[in-house]
Fold:
Amino acid sequence: MALTLTTLGSAIRTVVVPRGEQVFITRTLFIFLRWSFGFVAGRRHTWESHERVKARMAPVGLIMLPVIWAVSVIAAMSLTFWAIDDRSYGSALALSGSSLTTLGFRTADGGAQLTVAVIEGLIGLGLVGLMISFIPTIYSAFSRREVAVAKLHIRASKVGERASPEVLLTRIHFIDGLDQMPQLWSEWEDWFVDIEESHSSFPMLVFFRSPVPERSWISGAGLALDTASLYISVLELPRAPRAELMIHTGTMALRRIAHFFGFDYETDPAPDDPISIERGEFLEVYETLKDVGLPIRSDFDAAWRDFSGWRVNYDQPLLQLAAFADAPPALWSSDRSVAYRRPTVIRRRR
Structure:
């Protein structure tokens, strides 16, 4: 009965409770899947095949969860049937499977067995009901997330190149759309609120990869935050309160998700604390924006100081999540321990 209640608790805390909780069965499953799929992906020759393997991990975990719950309940209730009757354990196991699936190929004898069989049948129907509602919820949140990510990546990328903040700002400048940027900040502020709620309530969403291998919700978050930070610190424009609010909202959302997974990051960094972006990298973007005719601040040191002051707030949680979920390479928004332009061939492990 303890095993049965533990399994039910795992299902309810994973599916029903509107708050992210560390559930032993769910956590153990995804740790195992992350290791096994990472091992298989590491043996792939190309980055594309590596991505295909990693993209299957979260859906497989989503399908395996109800299977594990059902097997656990069958095993637990079989011990109950075995304890209240003199039948063999094999017969008790068959009766437990019949009761959970409500197939009726074995029947219970006596009041105690019948009561347990009815209870197990109700548990089985409850698990089916939970999964019928759970899977659409997961994919609905996934779809909402990817619409905004796809739109931003398309705007911020060139053919054959990955998305970057400088491309986004340059394209918007060429179409005279800088005055429309508050709409983008508002859209992504709402996106971060949604991500904070969904990805902390259903942590498996962190591992769901985008339909396009080069995209990622993590790199999309970094792209939006870095674009806003560059807009505030580099461009000689009136103050942008919407951009500042979006950076704050995004920082808090990433920190909450990182906190759920137990990452250690500085909760109150100083504006002059070091960041993962080097001064030379920032200078290249600064010069690019200047060359295309954007209104650039003449004081480079002040621009770098302001950009670092904004970036330091979300730098650690962003890169921790990127490394944890093995996000595809992106400028400033992926795991900085690997090169930005990842080679197309991945060596076999020895």
Observations:
- The chain has a mean pLDDT of 87.
